[in-house]
Amino acid sequence: MSTPGAATQDAASIKPATGKLGIMIPGMGAVATTLIAGVEAVRRGLAKPIGSTTQMGTIRLGKRTDGRSPLIKDFAPIAQLDDLVFTGWDIFGGNLYDAAKTAQVLDRDQLESIRPYLESIEPIPAVFDQHYVKRLTAKKAKTGKNKCDLANQIRNDIAEFKTKTDRQVMIWCGSTEIFLEQAAVHQTLEAFEKGLVDDDPGITPSMMYAWAALKEGIPFANGAPNLTVDVPALVELSKKMNAPICGKDFKTGQTFIKTVLAPAFKTRLLGISGWYSTNILGNRDGEVLDDPESFKTKEESKLGVLDYILQPELHPDLYKDIYHKVRINYYPPRGDNKEGWDNIDIFGWLGYPMQLKVDFLCRDSILAAPLALDLCLFLDLASRTPSLRGLGIQEWLSFYFKAPQTAPGVYPEHDLFIQQMKLKNTLRHIMGEDLITHLGLEYYGE
């Protein structure tokens, strides 16, 4: 059990969040502009940071009868929104006001109220290779003699941003790259850095951004289903540089609902014979995923969830023969307002069949933006926390991802509520507070 002295000592070892926190975003499209415009709207008192755990979430400390449930941002030394500074890279040119208008997520009046701020941010030309994202064509992209040269150009951009900010984090909000499996170039840092010089096809633009960030000691989060930091070489670099990493693929719409419903069926030991999921979306994400190779990357991310939650090997009578299908349909009229439609065939006592149908008319970037904000703030906290910064993978941030990154041989935890308990218990742990087990026997003893 912790003592007040230990709590003070543990929390005191975390460096305070002083100065400016720079947030660097490769891919300044719908999610990035919604995040940045949203932060500015909140800073000006024009809106509330709804959906953000760091801004609106509370954390219970001690017994239920103690009545201690501070806001997370008042409990842990998290950077304040007023201290955030944004930059990033993009392939389409124009400032963030133009990009936000193109994305068509936020309404015109809201954009106009913060127009000068958005116009003041102009993305840097990005590292881009159409081989990895077939459906996009770059208007502004870096050129270099090889991948090592390009990655070092990113490092130069980072070095310049470091002169304007005190600490930095990087979060990938770019498009979904084609499906890749781990290869020899990914196994060690030495092989990876040789691969940069040799233009190895196994190294994608997102990996070059991750390598550049980690080399500069900057934490990196991956909001897309790309392989990116999920390779031994970059995990090695993350540990070596004390730069935390996490990923992958923001858990926003359909998979968010799936990680709520599947644990409920499993908890009640209801069987599932089939789960059909389809998505209709018309934003740039939908356009990119219209390419089969990019869709394969997303499909892998979305399909793994049920297997891990339901554990069919432990419950063969209930889940061994489940038929799980995921579809994504590009439909331009829908824009960023995605529709996630699920048909779930379940069965109960004595095998009698039942059905559940879910139609989630969601807004993709509105759901993703607060996740991106939380990840930046929590990664920054991890980089200032001695017990977390050298771990490499920050599994306690699984809450935010469709395909959480874990240590080799450890299966990912997908149940949303277990993920939240993991996150809050990690915060209690680093702040020297008792973990909450929900045992509750202490209320009924002598």
Tell me what you see in this structure:
The structure is a single chain. The protein has 446 residues and is an alpha/beta fold. The chain folds into two domains: 312 residues, NAD(P)-binding Rossmann-like Domain (Rossmann fold), CATH 3.40.50; 109 residues, 2-Layer Sandwich (Dihydrodipicolinate Reductase, domain 2), CATH 3.30.360.10. Helices cover 40% and strands 15% of the residues. The protein has 18 helices and ten strands. The strands form two sheets. The chain has a six-stranded parallel β-sheet with strand order 3-2-1-4-5-6, sandwiched between helices. Strands 8-7-9-10 form a four-stranded mixed β-sheet. Strand 9 and strand 10 form a beta hairpin. The radius of gyration is 22 Å and the shape is globular. The N terminus is likely disordered.
Give a quick rundown of the structure.
With 446 residues, this protein is an alpha/beta fold.
Q: What is the CATH architecture term of the largest domain?
A: 3-Layer(aba) Sandwich
**Number of continuous helical runs:** 18
Helical content band: 25-40%
The first-level CATH class name of the largest domain: Alpha Beta
Distance between the termini: 20 Å
Question: What percent strand?
Answer: 15-25%
For the secondary structure, the number of strands is 10
Strand order of the largest sheet: 3-2-1-4-5-6
What descriptive keywords fit this protein?
single chain, 446 residues, alpha/beta, Rossmann fold, Dihydrodipicolinate Reductase, domain 2, 2 domains, six-stranded parallel β-sheet, four-stranded mixed β-sheet, 10 strands, 15% strand, globular, disordered N terminus
